[in-house]
Known about the structure:
Shape: elongated
Radius of gyration: 22 Å
Low-confidence stretches: none
Distance between the termini: 72 Å
Helix content: 55-70%
Strand content: under 5%
Largest sheet: none
Number of helices: 5
Mean pLDDT: 77
Structural class: mainly alpha
Amino acid sequence: MSLSKQKTSVAEYDNTKLAIGFLAVIVVFGLFVVGYDQGHIFSLLQGNEAFNIKYLHEVTHDMRHSSGFPCH
């Protein structure tokens, strides 16, 4: 009995590139939320009022300072 006949290909089920791409999108979105969002995300639902409230800015305020993003 030959071992080469029992060998299966791992490349058929390898989703590494897909997983890395998906995680990269999550990281970029998280960076936007923490570093740059000034009401842009919630403005889709609340309109211009979201730019005055800045809900995500207030939630991530301390994280912004600890990661070095200026916000004042």
